[in-house]
Amino acid sequence: MSQGTPDKDHDAARRAFLRNAAAATVITLAPGVTLLTMGRAEAGIAKPSGPLDPKKRWGMLIDTTKCASGCDKCVAACKKENGWEAREGSPTDPQWIRKVDVKDPGTGFEMSLPVMCQHCEHPPCVDVCPTGASMKRADGIVLVNRHICIGCRYCMMACPYKARSFEHHEVEESDKAPWAPRGQGTVEACTMCVHRVDTGRIPACVEACDKGAMLFGDLNDANSDIAKRLAEYPSAQIRADLGTNPGVRYAQLP
Amino acid sequence: MKRIHYSELEGRAGFYIALIVLGAIAGAGVLAAWYMEHYGHVVTGMTNQIVWGMPHVFAVFLIVAASGVLNVASIGSVFEKKPYKPLGRLSALMAMAVLAGGLAALVLDLGRPDRLVVAMTKYNFKSIFAWNIYLYNGFFGVVLLYLYVQMTRSWKIASYKKAAGTLAFVWRLILTTGTGSIFGWLVARQAYDLAIYAPMFIALSFSFGLALFLLMLVALYKSVERPLGHGLVNRMGRLLGVFVAAAAYFVAIQHLTNFYAAEHQGVENFLLFGGNVYSFLFWAGFVLAGTIIPFALLFSKSAKTSMKPVVIASALVVIGGLSLIYVIIIGGQAYPLVLFPGKEVSSSFFDGVVNPYTPSFPEIMLGLSGFAIAALLTVFAAKNLRLMPTSLADEDVDPHLVQKSAQVVELKKAA
Fold this sequence. Notes:
The complex is a heterodimer of chains A (254) and B (415). Helices cover 30% and strands 16% of the residues of chain A. Chain A has helices spanning 5-42, 73-82, 124-128, 154-158, 194-197, 204-208, 225-232, and strands at 58-63, 97-103, 110-116, 134-136, 142-144, 165-166, 187-188, 214-218, 235-236, 248-251. By secondary structure, chain A is of the alpha+beta class. Chain A starts with a helix and ends with a strand. The model of chain A has no long low-confidence stretch (mean pLDDT 89). In chain A, the strands form 4 sheets. A 4-stranded mixed sheet of chain A has the order 8-1-10-9. A two-stranded antiparallel sheet of chain A has the order 2-3. Chain A has a two-stranded antiparallel sheet with strand order 4-5. The longest helix of chain A is centred in the N-terminal third of the chain and has 38 residues, at 5-42. Chain A is built from 7 helices and 10 strands. Chain A has 2 domains: 1-42; 58-251, Alpha-Beta Plaits (2-Layer Sandwich), CATH 3.30.70.20. With 415 residues, chain B is mainly α. Helix content of chain B is 71%, strand content 2%. Chain B is built from 16 helices and 3 strands. Chain B has a two-stranded antiparallel sheet. The longest helix of chain B is centred in the middle third of the chain and has 31 residues, at 230-260. β2 (97-103) of chain A pairs antiparallel with β2 of chain B, so a sheet runs across the interface.
């Protein structure tokens, strides 16, 4: 290569360009990096105590005999915790948890129970998701990775429990909890309050139930309250015939 | 038989008018998609109950039809049927155009269409959707190769026509299997979860695709006044009649199978005898307009001497097809999910109730734009590539067709 002046100018220009480009990159990325490092503390989210334990399987036991029709404390707690709202009669608003009233038309027997994501061992939503946004953690909690959800809604077609909602509206900033990212055009559902569970707390709905109808714990730990209760009393899963093996169990299910 | 000569579409004003009209519809669809993306899906008729709506009806119809459009080329180069050979180029090009139209409607309806690159880079191979992304993209590649082999001047490459045609034919069968399995592999819902969805969609693709191809073929040849033989159109029409019957057979078996199981009688009664929009579209749309009338028209005496019955039948097959896909997609979701079999349920999230759906204007525009994109791409390609034989007169395509036509004329005279 020749060492003439035009080439030197050219090199200088190239160096200047690279310098500016590097500066622009730093300016662009810095706020994001800062948020990533400082945001968690500012948002008041405790750091998870350690890596996920694949030996655990988080689950719930809901005693339908203790759950009263018309009581929706679990639903209200979930709304408050995760920042979603469902206007009455709106077919487009999300519902992460709902109270379902069930009646046997033959006998007239009635009951009421909360239904949310059942955190299946074999979740159909995870099977059908094209990008892998629907995923199951090692400890059995089923989540939506909101960063790679393309909003195709195939998981909603596949879920036998009607547990998922599509965000039809723009989500107000004030409604976004730092631990429960939500956004227009993506799918969302119960996270089993993963942010609480990871720091040793129990899900908001379980905490809010003052009838003692909801129990949370590790299904695989024989010494846990939930495992002991499940071993002692009969329980069932919704649509057990589908073989999805939900982590949410119901006592006295019809 | 004469050697087939291909040439670009003639005409100037007509071509530009077609481009403007089709472009306007396609543009309206893109605007509708922008509107939906900007304000959210709340501006559509879709809800958390009816999660797939009108764009999916049009998209699935077009994606299914696309592989059927390619059959015309396959019948010529794979199954060696002489009258179909000159149609191979147009068939291959139009198949890609129809798939592009269907995919456009599908991806523009995504909640996050801006994340299309995610769908192209992150795969969950247990998902039939993920496989379909490969199958759809691969279809473009395989059919492009097939088109090149058909159009090349090199004798050496052209000798691979049958091999390329066979590859494309097998690919299209797998592709439609994938599309049918989107519904066949949905275990949660009463209307789906049936293995027959895959072969049924293949049968439907044969009839939808040939109907669309016939409409396009007649429209193009009539608009530029190129010769198009009655014998050829009649022969393709009779094949369409066979496809229509085959599709109806699969649909009948699907419903009979589902009806036989007591657990599915609720959804079948709802779809077929519910006295609702779905039962109307099934019986009046698919069965009467999309099957019985076209079948009668295609095998009628007048179809032997006139193209009109074939054109009307093809249009009816398209209408019947859209009706059936509407019943499958919307009807299947309108019927409530069964969480507690045999029990009555109610909740704030519409458990246990039939879910209403009213398609909104943007959704319909987005769906229609799929058709417009398909037609636009086909017309534009026909104008710039040598896809269409200068003559499709019976004597130029296959002498046997002429003999048959002569017999018909004699029969007519005798009568």
